[in-house]
Amino acid sequence: MSFALTPTQRAYVERVRALAQTDLSGGPQGDSDRVDRELLGTLGRLGLLRGLFGGEPDEPPRDAAAMQLCLLRETIATVNTHAETALALQGLGSYPILQAGAPAAVERWMPGVVSGDVAAGFALSEAGAGSDAAALALRAEPDGEGWRLSGEKTWISNAPDADVYTVFARTTPDTRARGVTAFVVAGDAEGLAGEPIDLLSPHPIGRLTFDGVRVERSDVLGEVDKGFAVAMRTLDLFRPSVGAFAVGMAQAALDAALAYANERQVHGAPLIEQQSVAHTLAEMATRLQASRLLVYAAASAYDDGADARHITTSAAMAKLHATEAAQYVVDQAVQLHGARALQRGHLLEQLYRDVRAPRIYEGASEVQRTIVARGLGKG
């Protein structure tokens, strides 16, 4: 399943797989809604957090390579979804700092992100601004040379435990996307509080409240009133990699289903010899491979510097198809295994819970269809 990968990329996948299988296999698969500091430290020590960003491993991160990010997330997801999620949340929360932060902000936060000593969060969503992110209402009210942030955020990665957040707030009222500014906010800032959210599959996701949190002009990421572009650039990068996460989960489910279908004896023959089972496995494999190729195509478009519309449309297609396909593949794997797959602690029981969220976060499937249709309409 390495079609279109260069020898260097294939070698990278093998290196990541070896590290994951040695240091992450059999580890905790996520039973807490708080940041796993020990796991972040392990990911940092292995150099996997550095892999979120492009360039040489021994250099400070300067940008991100979409294909490397996708290969990283896909490979780790086949071994440990808890570790994959911890890694992905680090990248999502810190990439806006790297791409748009002042040099002082980059120097303050990025070394700790890469080492695993700093947990980062991405604070865009609100109770009334999920799929319609431009409707966000967190206020940034002028205060001397800076601003005071007041309001709430929800479904925030690594909240309430992150050491630093990328926060999107409204600096100009009644202007939707044109009046949003991105800020870097320390997790221990005065007036910032939060609580975890209990999810179907526990992850460090929570709510944040801002009670006059002070931010300075040096905390602005990018330009004032142009923070929405920072958010969209980050999402264009990470949406294909959400698809890669889904591909990794689907691959793990398909591998489990194939192994079981070949071992399980029914009426004196392996289960896979039943035509309905063989056809189901064929459909699972086909949807998985189609997803993988869409993800790789979207990542390549990003890395090759394609025009913004093509990047956005390709990213939406990749996330849409891969997450929907993964839901199907995992569900069919559960069905083939029968009741044993429903037992707490079974690989497929965990995947069944983990696979549901990616169809919602970073733009629900319905939003991705709208993005694709809008791209088609522009010709």
CATH fold field value of the largest domain: Butyryl-CoA Dehydrogenase, subunit A, domain 3
* Count of DSSP strands: 10
Helix tally equals: 10
Q: Helix content range of the residues, please?
A: 40-55%
Q: How many structural domains?
A: 3
Which stretches are low in confidence, meaning pLDDT under 50 for 5 or more residues running? Answer: none
Structural Rg: 21 Å
Known CATH architecture of the largest domain: Up-down Bundle
Strand order of the largest sheet: 1-4-5-8
In whole angstroms, the N-to-C terminal distance is 32 Å
- Note the beta-strand portion: 15-25%
- The CATH homologous superfamily of the largest domain is called Butyryl-CoA Dehydrogenase, subunit A, domain 3
| Structural class by SSE content | alpha+beta
Kindly state the mean pLDDT as a whole number? 94
Biggest sheet layout: 4 strands, mixed
The helix-strand sequence is HHHHHEEEEEEEEHEEHHHH
What's the CATH class of the largest domain, please?
Mainly Alpha
Which of globular, elongated, flat, extended, rod-shaped describes the shape? globular
Family: Belongs to the acyl-CoA dehydrogenase family.
GO molecular function, one term: flavin adenine dinucleotide binding
Domain Acyl-CoA dehydrogenase/oxidase C-terminal: 225-376
Keywords: FAD, Flavoprotein, Oxidoreductase
Report what the structure shows.
- The chain is of the alpha+beta class and 379 residues long.
- The chain has 3 domains: 7-119, Acyl-CoA dehydrogenase/oxidase, N-terminal domain (Butyryl-Coa Dehydrogenase, subunit A, domain 1, Orthogonal Bundle); 121-225, Butyryl-CoA Dehydrogenase, subunit A, domain 2 (Beta Barrel), CATH 2.40.110; 228-377, Up-down Bundle (Butyryl-CoA Dehydrogenase, subunit A, domain 3), CATH 1.20.140.10.
- 50% of the residues lie in helices and 15% in strands.
- It has 10 helices and 10 strands.
- Strands 1-4-5-8 form a 4-stranded mixed β-sheet.
- β9 (265-266) and β10 (269-270) form a beta hairpin.
- α7 (275-303) runs antiparallel to α8 and α8 runs antiparallel to α10.
- The longest helix has 37 residues, at 227-263.
- It is globular, with a radius of gyration of 21 Å.
- The model has no long low-confidence stretch (mean pLDDT 94).
